[in-house]
Amino acid sequence: MTLSLHDVDPDDADAQQLLAELSDILQALTGSSGRSSFSAADARGPGSRFVVARDASGRAVGCGALRPLQPGVAELKRMYARAGTRGVGAAVLAYLETAARELGYRAVWLETRAVNTRAVAFYTRQGYRRIDNFGRYVGNAAAVCLGKDWRMTIKELNAAQAQARVGELAEVLRDCVEGGASVGFMLPLAAGRPEAFWRRVAEGVAAGERHLFVAEDEHGRVCGTVSLVIDMPDNQPHRADVSKMLVHRRARRQGLAERLLLALEAKARELGKTTLVLDTVTGSDASRLYERLGWQKAGDIPNYALMPDGAPCSTTYYFRALTDSSRGA
């Protein structure tokens, strides 16, 4: 289908007709029209866009909006493609993503409803990943929040690279512990302790005992990390452990933990591993992430560890069988 896309005022007659159709569809599908979460003023201010797509005859066939959400992040709103059209949604999305980049955004977030499985599948195909619910959607089990951050990259570090970035890795660890994460360290952190830990990790990479992955922000700084530990007993050559999943607080709610974990699972499959094991604080955000990605709960151990402030916490063990059917879950 030949399409043309143009920025318009959301009060444009065609835009209003498209928005009305979208609201009716959402009302029937989800029980909410979505009207209360968007106003025309949202798409008129600085950093905003409203676009209408037209076919070769000039008929309006789709629309979408972009509005500021928080520094560096835009929110996608009112995406709609008329029934019977092909490629309209993808074209509108690509147009708005380009606009977001030009406006200086580093990421685009959105919300849809879990019952709207077609929308969830569409955004997933377009490279969006599940993120923590944000804003008005926090605590809403019916809401699914997705995001795409084109400036965040995931890479594996070799031993020399790991040694060179000990300082950045230590900063991430220090931030997580100071933020209350139970990851093997107590407050106050002794000077040099995080750096010493990461130097040992780099030595483990050099010895072939583990694989180290990092997430880098738009400035190339490490903002997240996870390790695949493959130094196992002789009777467990098929198994590996997931260790030190950490994301700096400044980089959270952008899907980095999921991307790090998927990169780690891909490496595990490449190495022929069929079983992965990890543990985390019972009921934590991390536990919800692992369960959503298909990890199986093995059990809880009460009072297994301490939080950084000394309070006891329960730990949950998870495992994942890496089979063809689990690929990309």
TrEMBL record:
PROSITE patterns: GNAT (PS51186). Residues 3-151, 152-323 form the N-acetyltransferase domain. It holds the Pfam family Acetyltransf_1. One of its GO terms (molecular function) is acyltransferase activity, transferring groups other than amino-acyl groups. Keywords: Acyltransferase, Transferase. InterPro entries: Acyl_CoA_acyltransferase, Bact_Acetyltransf, GNAT_dom. PANTHER family: AMINOALKYLPHOSPHONATE N-ACETYLTRANSFERASE-RELATED-RELATED. This is N-acetyltransferase domain-containing protein.
